[in-house]
Amino acid sequence: MQFIKENCSLPVPQVFAYESDEDNPVKIAYILMELLPGSVALDALGGYEVHGGEIPKRHRPNFYRLVAKCHVQFTSLRLPKIGLMTRNSEGGFECGPLPGIGGPFDTATAFFEAWADSAKFKWDKESVTRLSLCDGGPFPLDHDDFHHCNIMVGENTFDVTGIIDWDGACTVPWELIAFPDFLTAQPVSFDLPQKYDRDGQPFDEELRETWRERGEYIEMVKLAESEESQDSLLSSCLSSKRSQAIAYCYGAYSCVGKLGFYDRVIKELESER
After folding, report:
1. Apex CA 37: angle with CA 35 and CA 39, to 5°?
2. Cα 164 to Cα 7, 10, 11, 115, distances in angstroms
3. Which domain holds residue 94?
4. b/e map of 36-72 (b: 16 or more CB within 10 Å)?
């Protein structure tokens, strides 16, 4: 959070003091930080009991637009290596090892190879392909849980007042930059083929709506990139079916077990190299 405060205008809580272990006068790890106004978007306007954990439709355009601006801002913060965001003894910021994978990594290829080595279900070493089209750094900062339970909003307006819960923030390959969790959708290759028509469009009306909103979100990101004088790497990643398939795989296969049609995903990624 201090790194973000020092490098952009993204609204995050100011940290006043912290201790990461129990070797301090109060004998417990603690953090004292600013209280942001509003409530998390998940709890606004009556919370789950009223709107089932979803953003009310009338507030989505404004909320999505402001979230897109935040998305552009934190992915514009980049470091030369891939890893967990840490603070060194000199007070500077750098990347450390990622839990369960290792690192930090100088290239996206090195990260993907380490990820493949740590996977529960994996192919032989010769089948690990070069997945990244942006192999070298700098690499973007990513929020580990970019969900509306971690986005603060005005109770009646859904204006974004801050982003919280940066535990686990790290830099990642561009292919792992995905939509906010409330716009997550399975890649077609992960899902049952009979759920889609001949043109690849889903039969499910709710999924069609999510696809439409994802397209609108990409346009909002493009506008924010232009307003912030940023490059178009974020919107390009969100527009890429290949990148989004990789990002989805990373989340799915980080869990215990195997989800989806694994072989179909691999074939899709190989065919689009």
Report:
1. 100
2. 17, 11, 9, 27
3. 37-271
4. bebebbbbbbeeeeeeeeebeeebbeebbbbbbbbbb
Nearest to 4, CA basis, from 138, 158, 165: 165
* Position 256 in a domain: yes
Cα–Cα dist 265/263, whole Å: 5
Q: What is the SS3 assignment for 182?
A: helix
Q: Which residues of 235-268 are buried (b: 16+ CB within 10 A; e: fewer)?
A: bbbbbbebbbbbbbbbebbeeeeeebbbeebbeb
Q: What is the DSSP letter of 84?
A: E
Q: Is residue 95 part of a domain?
A: yes
pLDDT by 10s per residue, the chain, length 273: 989 999 999 999 998 988 878 888 888 988 899 999 999 999 998 888 888 888 999 999 999 999 999 999 999 999 999 999 988 888 889 999 998 889 999 999 899 888 888 776 666 555 555 678 789 989 999 998 999 999 999 988 999 999 999 988 999 999 999 999 999 998 888 888 899 998 889 999 999 999 999 999 999 999 999 999 999 999 999 999 889 988 988 877 665 444 444 556 666 666 655
Task: Residue 82: name the closest of 99, 107, 100 by CA.
Answer: 107
In a domain, 257, yes or no: yes
Cα radius of gyration rounded to whole Å, the chain: 20
| Amino acid at position 81, single letter | K
Q: Report how many domains make up the chain.
A: 1
With contact defined as beta carbons under 8 Å apart, do 126 and 9 qualify? no
Residue 24 placed within a domain = no
